[in-house]
């Protein structure tokens, strides 16, 4: 038998040792997989997947994680940003709304005027219905009486102006001459040449701008046509509001989402009560102003006392500005017709009546129902006048008063602070007060828990 070469034996032994090492490593790998692997040895395992970077060694400095971008901003900046985009959305909505209102300004002003007239006439309809008249007949009687009274007042004013126009022209000429003499003898050192230069400049201005004056007159004709159209729209709207105000309000509630309908149903009658209180109070205050200032003008022998009183009554519906304009017109008429002394007396009468109005009549008649801060009144009148002229100045303050009432009620309603018993139904409301949900029932106080008696020798703390 031949002998096996030595090198072949050594090769077989080496292969055996290599296989043993492979087996040991395979067994170690299987053990690592069962134990989850060692995070620090760099070998792959469930806690150290191959696609992730291994953690830094223990001697490396700790690096803080970057915060979320929202958390990196200061709290004040985040609040300002949140409020800012909401204000931008609100401003955009208001801008679109104002554009729409400007496009249909005539219709909006006519409907608002109808609301004001309805708030004034609705109590009469309610009283006539309480006397037994049907709704249609009560509405017709109230509307006819109201329109007849307004027509008679307008006819009387036109008649007075026509009757006194010739006398007024003569008195104006005499007043201008008297004013000229007073300026010449006044301490202002006005010369006759300066007065003549002012008169000549005025005549030249009128002659130069004849075309503009003519176009303004034609534009005035267009404005008169629009005013007549608005009056007709207001008349029709008033008739329908007086007759079907309740059903119109109930139909309007259907346009409100169901979740917000109870709150709006409760705020509507309260807003209507505020509007009614404002209109009736303003009419009473304007009537008192017109009567007393008109009597003062009449006893001072100023012409056109009745037309001036009606003018004061109408302009009293424009807060602050109307009183100034109407009073200034009365003073100017007294100045050019009766002289400086009579104008000063008229000015004293106007100031006295307006002071009594501001400090006695308005707080007593209007009360707390439509109390609006004077700054809010000034800003509202200015905004309304810039937006829609005289009509906007008239409706600005009642709009602010109604908005204040609605916002106050909705805030209390959202906080659950609304009394389940609302204001009693009034003749000026468009519908009976919508029932408000009862306030959140309060649970009865829980009975005190019975505690086990303390052990002997211990006192209860």
UniProtKB/TrEMBL annotation:
Keyword Cell membrane: yes
Location relative to the cell: Cell membrane
Coarse class of the protein's main subcellular location: membrane
Transmembrane segments: 137-158, 221-242, 277-299, 305-325, 332-356, 376-402
Keyword Transmembrane part of the UniProt annotation: yes
UniProt biased composition (Pro residues): 46-61, 435-455
Pfam families: AI-2E_transport
Membrane topology, record value: Multi-pass membrane protein
Record-level GO cellular component terms: plasma membrane
Disordered: annotated segments: 25-61, 425-461
Keywords: Cell membrane, Membrane, Transmembrane, Transmembrane helix, Transport
InterPro entries assigned: AI-2E-like
Single GO BP term: transmembrane transport
PANTHER family: PERMEASE PERM-RELATED, TRANSMEMBRANE PROTEIN
Family stated for the protein in its record: Belongs to the autoinducer-2 exporter (AI-2E) (TC 2.A.86) family.
Protein name: AI-2E family transporter
Organism: Streptomyces tirandamycinicus
């Amino acid at each position: 038998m031949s002998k096996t070469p030595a090198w072949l034996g050594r090769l077989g032994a080496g292969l055996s040792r290599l296989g043993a090492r492979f087996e040991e490593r395979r067994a170690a790998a299987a053990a690592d997989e069962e134990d989850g692997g060692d995070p620090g040895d760099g070998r792959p395992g469930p806690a150290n997947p191959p696609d992730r970077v291994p953690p830094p060694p223990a001697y490396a400095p700790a690096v803080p994680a970057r915060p979320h971008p929202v958390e990196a901003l200061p709290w004040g900046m985040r609040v300002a940003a949140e409020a800012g985009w909401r204000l931008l959305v609100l401003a955009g909505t208001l801008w679109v709304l104002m554009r729409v209102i400007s496009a249909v300004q005539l219709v909006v002003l006519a409907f608002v005027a109808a609301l004001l007239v309805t708030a004034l006439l609705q109590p009469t309809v309610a009283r006539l219905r309480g006397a037994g008249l049907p709704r249609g007949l009560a509405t017709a009687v109230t509307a006819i009486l109201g329109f007849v009274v307004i027509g008679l007042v307008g006819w009387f004013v036109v008649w007075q102006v026509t009757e006194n126009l010739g006398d007024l022209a003569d008195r104006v000429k005499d007043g201008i001459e008297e004013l000229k003499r007073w300026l010449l003898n006044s301490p202002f050192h006005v010369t006759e040449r300066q007065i003549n230069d002012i008169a000549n400049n005025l005549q030249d201005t009128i002659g130069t701008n004849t075309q503009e004056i003519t176009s303004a007159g034609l534009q005035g004709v267009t404005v008169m046509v629009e005013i007549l159209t608005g009056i007709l729209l207001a008349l029709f709207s008033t008739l329908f509001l007086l007759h079907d105000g309740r059903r119109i309000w109930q139909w309007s509630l259907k346009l409100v989402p169901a979740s917000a309908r109870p709150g709006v149903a409760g705020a509507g009658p309260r807003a209507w009560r505020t509007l009614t209180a404002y209109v009736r109070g303003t009419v009473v205050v304007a009537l008192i102003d017109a009567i007393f200032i008109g009597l003062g003008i009449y006893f001072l022998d100023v012409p056109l006392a009745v037309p001036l009183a009606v003018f004061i009554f109408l302009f009293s519906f424009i807060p602050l500005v109307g009183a100034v304009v109407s009073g200034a017109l009365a003073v100017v008429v007294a100045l050019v017709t009766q002289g400086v002394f009579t104008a000063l007396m008229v000015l004293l009468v106007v100031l006295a009546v307006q002071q009594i109005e501001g400090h006695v009549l308005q707080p007593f008649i209007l009360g707390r129902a439509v109390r609006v801060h004077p700054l809010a009144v000034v800003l509202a009148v200015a905004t309304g006048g810039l937006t829609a002229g005289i009509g906007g100045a008239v409706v600005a303050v009642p709009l602010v008063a109604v908005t204040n009432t609605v916002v106050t009620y909705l805030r209390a309603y959202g906080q659950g602070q609304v009394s389940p018993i609302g204001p009693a139904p009034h003749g000026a409301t468009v519908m009976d007060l919508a029932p408000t949900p009862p306030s959140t029932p309060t649970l009865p106080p829980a009975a005190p828990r019975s505690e086990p008696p303390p052990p002997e020798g211990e006192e209860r703390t």
